[in-house]
Amino acid sequence: MDSKKPYIKPDTFSGSTSENIDSFLKKYDRAAKINGWKTKDKAQYIVAFLEGPALTFYENSQHNNIDIPKWEKLEKTFRT
Question: Which of 54, 77, 53 is nearest to 65 (CA)?
Fold first, then answer.
């Protein structure tokens, strides 16, 4: 029997008008839970699933912040 857990790769998010941030974050949270990511992991890994304007937004908001932000703060920033 294979005891490896599945890895669920979250979708990417670019922030285009056809995408919904709430839907992306819900799916990202679901994948994070299945993958066993802690809250700090979610904040650290999200950058790997952003592209285009969403990645630029993230990078600009983190420009002056060396530490990885708390997930709750990051999630709130994306929703506003």
Answer: 77
